[in-house]
Amino acid sequence: MLESTNGSSTSVWMDTAEVPVFPPQQGELDTEVCVIGAGIAGLTTAYLLAREGREVVLIDALGIGAGETGRTTAHLFPPDEWYSFIEQRFGADQARLVADSYARAIDAVEGIVREEGIECAFERLDGYLYALPGNGFQDLAAEQQSAARAGVPAELLARVPGLPFDTGPCVRYPGQAQFHPLNYLAGLARAFVRRGGRIHGATHAHRIRGDHQRQVVSTAGGEIRARAVVVATHTPFNDRVVMHTKQAGYRTYVVGLRVPRGSVPRILLWDTGDPYYYIRLETPEASLDHDILIVGGADHKTGQDDHPQHRYDEIERWTRERFPMAQETLYRWSGEVMEPSDGLAYLGRNPMDEDNVYLITGDSGNGMTHCTIGALVVSDLVMGRPNPWSALYDPSRKPLHGMGEFAKEQANVMARYGEWLTGGDVDSVQEIAAGEGAVVRDGLRRIAVYRDPQGALHALSAKCTHLGCAVHWNAAERSWDCPCHASRFDIEGQVLHGPAPTPLEKVELAPEPAPRPAGTRNGVRRPMR
Q1: Is 134 exposed, middle or buried (CB count within 10 Å of its CB: 0-12, 13-18, 19+)?
Q2: CB of 383 closer than 8 Å to CB of 50
């Protein structure tokens, strides 16, 4: 079992995987390529480069799959933005490139699984998109036609087959896939090491500096000198402003419910609603009588719902209305999604650095697919080869195809800075219950205070160390989340998710007033009557 280090919830993958642990970096290192981030993006990139004979060092602040890869639902399916929107925004030629990159990414995962003998329950499945009546995008015929023009053998059907409810018309996308993401990463890590790669866990990269010949990555364990650096940390920590204006962080929620084996068809399913839901099955290895129905959705901007537990309830209620065979809830977890303003990921050279610093970010709800595409693009660029998708996913592109979303997200961010002029969540720390957190106003300061189950207070500056937005409490994960650019911190202020480069500053609080003795008012004992 992989211990949760990125929040308080545990996914089914974390509960059922044995992931290798690697020691932290100790001392300075020299290598050809340094990859930062040991999720699917970084580990796939490192593996592909090692397979071509490159000397690669892979580091992660936590460990293998301990970030967002362990919190995915692990679909490998069509773009979250749908082909009709991509064709409309980017044109038919670019839509064909998107379709090709998605198909090649699934092929790449399948090929690695086969070549390295990785046991991760990789399975090819049909995917189905359907429209909720009166809610969200409705023109499924246009989506099927756009997908077909992009080279995807999609077909329009009257309904999704085998379900206990009538979806109405749907688009079927054959040849999609699913897998166990942490078992995949465990096998990929072992294959990378067999090919000469080095991995260091618990190694936090603080800074990258250098020139076109050599980059230096600074960590607590020493410097790593490399000819190229790949930043695969879900959102880049080395870019302070530009990339973070082009994408926004969202929390997404997942529920896993026990269902009788065979009662739900083995498909991938998602709808066009707002909120939208996505579904897959997982079959536990030790189970002979049940599957786990995994349902996700109910997304919201990171840091903009202090008590999001109700979102689990909404997903569960939605699921039970449509899948009456659902039994007890086995898992509840949440994850982070980076939404690019124009819907396509950012994969390639970092626009704010020399040509030997690369990014993989902007997963847009298709993390397993986009991150694998990113690894294919970046490994080609590092090797000096052209890649057919590099211009399409270039991080330096302007958000011309998503200006409406870009403007909306920037307005949302700017509004959050106004919170520095408002009061706190509570008037006093005495109002904070055990196991809860809240922001308290102290003069010009906003202080993020958590009271642990034993009653002790943990106080931090509420000022995010990225660009100074005020963090909010996340009761579902017991973390402090930034509503501007999606940084997240644990109750001690340590960084859980970038782009924040450093922890929140610790704050000393005045001692709490002692509880008043029974029978007193304002500290004065009342006379006996």
Answers
A1: exposed
A2: no
What lies within 8 Å, CB to CB, of 44 at 6+ separation is 108, 112, 188, 371, 372, 375
> CA-to-CA distance for 252 and 263, rounded, in angstroms?
26
265-303 per-position pLDDT tens digit = 999 999 988 888 999 999 988 777 999 999 999 999 999
Beta strand ranges found along 232-267 (DSSP E): 247-260
Name the residue among 61, 33, 358, 15 with its Cα closest to residue 192.
33
Give the type of residue at 118: I
Query: And the tokens for 309?
Result: 């537990």
Listed in sequence order, the residues at least 6 apart from 420 whose beta carbon sits closer than 8 Å to its beta carbon are: 446, 470
pLDDT reading at 159 higher than 50? yes
**Which segments within 149-238 are labelled E, that is strand?**
155-157, 170-178, 198-200, 205-210, 215-219, 222-231
Per DSSP, 516 falls in state P
User: Is residue 353 within 8 Å of 211, Cβ to Cβ?
Assistant: no
Q: How many other CB atoms are found less than 10 A from the CB of residue 16?
A: 17
Query: pTM here?
Result: 0.93
Euclidean distance between CA atoms 97 and 95, whole angstroms: 5
CA proximity to 295, closest of 271, 262, 263, 261? 271
pLDDT at residue number 515 = 57
Least confident piece of the model among 252-261, 270-279, 332-341: 270-279
